[in-house]
């Protein structure tokens, strides 16, 4: 089965095409600056150089049209016609309590995603644009929604309820949902393979560390807790998101700075995190460079981030009564030996000891010492492949 995987953002659209029989990537691409000047499409068939097309792309309809044209191009395309695409899988950030698994998209599902926009306006809205654009362009092709929150639906009540009046929590479905689910699931399963053990016999902590960051506790192959909450704002300090803090301080700050709720929402999501601490950048690569040059605030931002990650790992080891493996993934987790070292230096009590030479390698690698009781891994995530797998599973069984 040939599956097209789409990840729609508000001004971007990423795609990959897989032959799911062999789980082989055929092509990938990125449409940038949708609805903004200077828009373009970068299309790259497997093993070839990327092809860049610069053109005005006013909306997601045009983005899908250009994607179809690139995939079917006689010279650089990977299918003769879009009839060869047997299914389309979409990443959808928030599934709420309604969607506990990936699902074949119909009018009811579309409406459900639309209703959840209020919980994730920055993410669900563009996902819906991508779904509707594909429905117009390729009306006969089955589409599947794959939710970031679905993997975390196994979290027990004691971990997902907030200490609000119970009736309020139920009335507004206000609870911990968690995100990055496809990534956490993928690397946890890969870690079990590397350990040559059944995942149901393992306790794994997965650390998705990037500009957006979250940690998950995975016991017996199921998520039992995760750091992001009702929205992706809770949990770790991130690139521009604030993470955990005293909610009363927000009321204090709103009064002192004269902010309304929308201004506060933008402030917490866009101006805080390591950007706010450093005053320099939300890019961890920039922070590491500046910290090495003696910039105290950049070093402080890195120290705070590493401390929070270490603290969550400790909490989740306690929650699961042990841990067999800790996995680093995503942009920072995969590419920063310095951050992995900073996080791991205080984990020896768990039997997790990092090996410096291994830690400086790139790609998928075990970075723990040979006699470590708890293994440390770097595993590149592959959310698109997970979406492809779920799309294949759902369509095949429908």
TrEMBL record:
What GO molecular functions are on record for this protein?
acetate kinase activity; ATP binding; magnesium ion binding
Q: Which residues bind Mg(2+)?
A: 7, 383
The record's subcellular location field reads: Cytoplasm
EC class name: transferase
Q: Which residues bind ATP?
A: 14, 208-212, 283-285, 331-335
Cofactor(s) this protein requires: Mg(2+); Mn(2+)
GO annotations of cellular component type: cytoplasm
Q: Name one Pfam family in it.
A: Acetate_kinase
Its biological purpose is as follows: Catalyzes the formation of acetyl phosphate from acetate and ATP. Can also catalyze the reverse reaction.
Q: Which family does it belong to?
A: Belongs to the acetokinase family.
Q: What is this protein called?
A: Acetate kinase
**Which source organism?**
Heliorestis convoluta
